[in-house]
Amino acid sequence: METYPVRVTARLDEPLSRGLWIVKPILALPHYFLLAFLWMAFVVLTAVAFFAILFTGRYPRSIFAFNLGVLRWSWRVTYYSFGALGTDRYPPFSLQAEPGYPATLDIAFPEQLSRGLVLVKWWLLAIPHYVIVALFTSGSLVSWDNGVARTIDLGGVIGILVIIAAITLLFTGRYPRGLFDLVTGMNRWALRVAAYAALMTDAYPPFRLDQGGEDRPGEFAPVPHDGHDGHVRHTGSSIAALSIGAVLVLGALATAVGGAGLALARGDDGYVSSPVRTVTTSGYALTSEEFVVDRPGSAFLRDLVGTVRVRAVAVDQPLFVGIARQRDLDEYLRGVAHDRLPSRGVLPGGPPPTPPGVQQIWAAQSDGTLTWTVQPGDWAFVIMNEDGGAGVDASVAVAATLPSLRALTAGTLAAAAVLLLLGAGLIVAGLRLVTVEHPVSAP
Q: How confident is the model over 218-275, as pLDDT tens digits?
């Protein structure tokens, strides 16, 4: 009979407690917490394995042992909690094989892997399986309440079947065998796909629902070993180093992305600009919210923000853009129909007493593009038609030079480099801290 190099077994522990399943998600919280860090390490080490396979055709044995351990740990916790509810035995905190536990997972170590297949199997070739596994493991009920979407996560087909099994267990004390076989088969499918996506085998997962607790029989060599037939074992210090290193590497990547975003935010004109926004009013003016610059902090803010630019463009008529102290602007617009951004509706009134350009209240003004250096005071921007007429329609963008952005970008990228070096160092140390257990030869 054809076998697959991923072996998933499960034994239904009977009798099961009628009500323990209600609190199992709480009891499993320590596992979920630790697995969050272990899965970060899993992702980072799988990326390392990707390049190792690409250049050497081999999956590093110490990485294979760790990733297999994370999958084993996850499968045991899944089986205990709402992935199956197949046992009341608390899962061990271990990456190692636990033959006595009712849920086991083994993956045959591949001596050689395809260098070309590694480029496509984890994303392109696995897409059909991803669709099926998504149906098995994820799904939600969505309802709408006054325009607000409310969802209930049901955990896909597996989650629904396990809930049915839990209710049956509550009232009868028995776990329906047919449901158990079906749930185990779906979990087996998902674990096969996980191993394939993690590059741990080149054997394509079968489109076959192998139900029941026992996997297909056949020759199987599950445990990774070194060149002297020793079994690779990760110690607590190795696991801690790999997990912390992975967190640092992922943090470095996130920091680097942020630094790159800062570097790309500045345009060729030297400004960091907001998106262009269209603003309209049927009144005679559009004003910004008041912003206050305190005198003690004005120098710092000026160094931080630099030069501010407000650009307003209209299609059919010239515009006026100005900045003035709030009290002066309020006095000018007293009794004038105008709107304040964000739009709150036009305040009632009539036309302005004079066109805006005649006024002497402006700290800076322009016919479309205004630049201003931050000064202490209470300020507000205004956009009007140049002739003071009604109906303002403009495309507006606000920008600033942000002189400190270069230093911030450099600091962010430097921090990313430091985090990456520290993380890589811990990962290398963690892989070197593994122990190799040699089998004892019979006398």
A: 545 454 444 444 578 999 999 999 999 999 999 999 999 999 998 888 888 889 999 9
Please provide the DSSP assignment of 117-135 as one string.
Answer: GGGTIIIIITHHHHHHHHH
Element (H, E) at 183: helix 177-197
Local confidence band at 1 (pLDDT 50, 70, 90 cut-offs): very low
Phi, psi for 366 (deg, rounded to 5): -160, 170
Pairs from 167-174 (Cβ < 8 Å, separation ≥ 24)? 169/16, 169/18, 169/21, 169/85, 170/18, 170/19, 170/21, 171/18, 173/15, 173/16, 173/18, 174/14, 174/15
How far from chain centre, in Å, is Cα 251?
A: 12
Helix axes of 236-265 and 405-432: crossing angle, nearest 10 degrees:
160
Q: How far apart are CA 237 and CA 67, in angstroms?
A: 16
Domains annotated on the chain, with CATH: 6-224 (no CATH), 272-401 (2.60.120)
CA gap 208, 151 in Å, rounded = 31
Residue with tokens 């990760």: 234
Question: Do residues 283 and 347 touch, judged by C-beta distance below 8 A?
Answer: yes
Preceding amide of 205 cis, omega within 30: no
- Maximum distance among all Cα pairs of the chain, rounded to whole angstroms: 109
pLDDT value of position 140 = 67
Tens-place pLDDT, residues 48-81: 999 999 999 999 999 999 999 999 999 999 999 9
Sign of CA dihedral 383, 388, 390, 393: negative
The verdict on whether omega for the bond into residue 342 sits within 30 degrees of 0, i.e. cis, is yes
Q: Which residue has the tokens 């010239």?
A: 318
